[in-house]
Amino acid sequence: MRVLVAGATGAVGRQLVPLLEGAGHEVVGISRRGPRPVDVLDAGAVRRAVAEAAPDAVVHQLTDLGDADGAANNRIRTEGTRNLVDAARAAGVRRIVAQSISWAYAPGEGPADESVPLDPTREEPRSRIVAGVRALESAVAELPEAVVLRYGILYGPGTWYAPGGAVAAALAGDPAARFLGSLAADDAVSSFVHVADAAEAAVRALAWPPGAYNVVDDEPAPGRTWLPVLAEALGVPAPAPASGTGGAPWARGAANGRARALGWIPARPSWRTGFGGRGPGAAGQGV
Predict the structure, then answer these.
(1) Which of 38, 238, 257, 265 is the most buried (most CB within 10 A)?
(2) Are residues 195 and 274 in contact, defined by beta-carbon separation less than 8 angstroms?
């Protein structure tokens, strides 16, 4: 299969391209940087790039997280996805695999599965985040074979959770550190996934039935549990546990049963070992 990877130089894309090639696919990568620079916000440039590539499938791994700018990342989800979908349709592409997130679900008890609707909240800034996710997922669903991968919080090389990244700086008390989200050691539950496991899911998703899939590890956990483990792995001070109980009601984690039923099994089934880089092929692949 000829596969166009949009976002080929990102944290997931760098893991994904060699996996696709190893599986026998012919890969064309585009990104803002690298040998084939394309601005995904330039509709004409995207249309030309996709037409030239003439792919059988498109894998959308585009983000804009380098400066922790939520507005910029939301623009990629809305305008960038719109441009990519329009270009794919014009090129006759039927199948698209797109990166989404697993923490946009409505509040509830226990980890959310894919039957849970997206959060209808009007509270900012969450409503803007969810609106961007909804726009992305609605756009890719216009193609007849659309697969949405709702990733957990990504960790591993090239992410905010890597040594020297935004999270390490924030935990070390760097006042200049910019970070989207909470680092409170409270009861808010998160689900994680290593970038290598996320990339493996994207390869498999080329053959999955259309629909949404949570791509998360097996252990959703509250911040008061996972943050000290992460801090130790990063070699920075652990935050003090939050007093009492607390955490946003939507911070419930996600369940991965649907993806597992199709054969995806995370090589790092828990952040407990994944943060420390332990697991198959883990050398240099820790936090």
Answers:
(1) 38
(2) no
Strand partners, 4: 28, 58
**pLDDT at res. 287:** 52
Cis peptide before 249 (omega within 30 of 0): no
- The secondary structure of 164-175 as a DSSP string is TSHHHHHHTT-T
Higher pLDDT, 127 or 33: 127
The pTM of the full predicted model, rounded to 2 decimals, is: 0.94
Instruction: State the residue for tokens 């985040």.
Output: 129
Rounded (to 5) percent helix, strand, coil in the chain: 35, 20, 50
Residue 285 has pLDDT above 70, yes or no: no
Three-class DSSP category at 97: strand
Mean per-residue pLDDT, 204-224: 98
For the chain, the structural domain boundaries read: 2-159+192-217+254-268
Give the fold, CATH level 3, of 2-159+192-217+254-268: Rossmann fold (3.40.50)
Q: In a 10 Å sphere around its CB, with 0-12 CB exposed, 13-18 middle and 19+ buried, how is residue 150 labelled?
A: buried
